[in-house]
Each structure stands twice: as structure tokens, then as C-alpha cells.
Amino acid sequence: MLCFTLSPLSSLARSSKSPAAPVSAPIDEYFGRMKLSPIGIGNELRRIAARSENESNARNSLPLLSLVEDSMRDWEHKYPHDDWIPKNLARLEHDYLLVPTLGGRIHAMHVIEWLRSDFPGSRALAHAQREAEHVMGLPTPSPTPSPTPEAAPTPTP
Fold it and tell me: How far apart are alpha carbons 65 and 38 in whole angstroms?
């Protein structure tokens, strides 16, 4: 008498769902036009910050920071829940604030908006806002709720 047991195969069939996508990027994956890894992004931001102690170098950092930002956007697009992203966004905002131009300030505010939309309530957002307020001497504008449309009065005949 032959007796077959299908339990191992049936459990295999039940668990053949597609594996969950990884949350964190591998350290050897490269992003954006500069082809930076997550570690490379952090290293580049530290290097730019160190070089930006001189105002002339800081002014020249904006194009490079834009390329690092491009790598970060690509990284977040592929790994939106990677917990290294908010920390590096706060670093990016810091480096933009080192650029003593209106363009640097505008980019810094855009990074804060990026943190607000994609990482609300994060420590990186709170840190970035405090730093921007300290550097610029102004509170960072908080998002204002959109006004609710009021019902139009009905015309009386």
C-alpha cells in the first residue's frame, strides 16, 4: 500500500507568495546621476560640509548638492521606507544652509518640505526645522491647512 504525504509540498505551495521588498537599500547599490551608494551619499555630504567652511567653497557647493539630492530622490523612489533617508535629508538641508545664497536657503526649505511630506513627525524633520530657524533667524513656515470651501448662499428670488 502506497501512502503519499503532501504536507511539505502543500506548505510550500501556500508560502509561495512573492517575498516582501527590502526596506533598506543594499550598501552596494548606486543611485542617481552620480551613482552614489547610501554610504557614498553620507560621505559626500560630510565632505561638502567640511569644504564649505570657506564661504567661497560653500557658494560653489550648490551644483554638487543638487546632484547628491538627485541620488537621494532616486534612493527614496526605490526604497521609500529606508530609515537612513531622513537622517541624510537632514544632512542635505544642513549643507544647503551652509551655502550663503538665496538659492541655498530655498533648497534647504524644499528639503524641509520633503521631510514633512515623506517623513512627518521624524526626528530628522524636527532637527532640520530647528537648524533652519537658527540659521535664518525665522521660524520655518508650517503647512497651512487648505481652507474648506464654504457653501455659496442660495439666491433668494
Answer: 15
The CATH code of the domain that includes 131 is 1.25.40
Full residue range of the structural domain in which residue 126 is found:
27-136
Contact 25, 79 (CB under 8 A): yes
pTM for the whole thing?
A: 0.74
pLDDT digits (tens, 9 = 90+) for 83-115: 999 999 999 999 999 999 999 999 999 999 999
C-alpha cell of residue 15? 508560502
Contact present, 46 and 39 (Cβ < 8 Å)? no
Q: What is the rounded CA–CA span in Å between residue 129 and residue 69?
A: 18
What are 108's three cell numbers? 534647504
Helix (H, G, I), strand (E, B) or coil at 31: strand
What distances in angstroms separate CA 9 from CA 3, 14, 19, 20, 148, one per listed residue?
Answer: 15, 9, 18, 21, 57
The answer to the question of residue 110 being in a domain is yes
Q: 84 φ, ψ to 5°?
A: -80, -20
Exposure of 17 by Cβ count < 10 A (0-12 exposed, 13-18 middle, 19+ buried)? exposed
The grid coordinates listed for 3 are 501512502
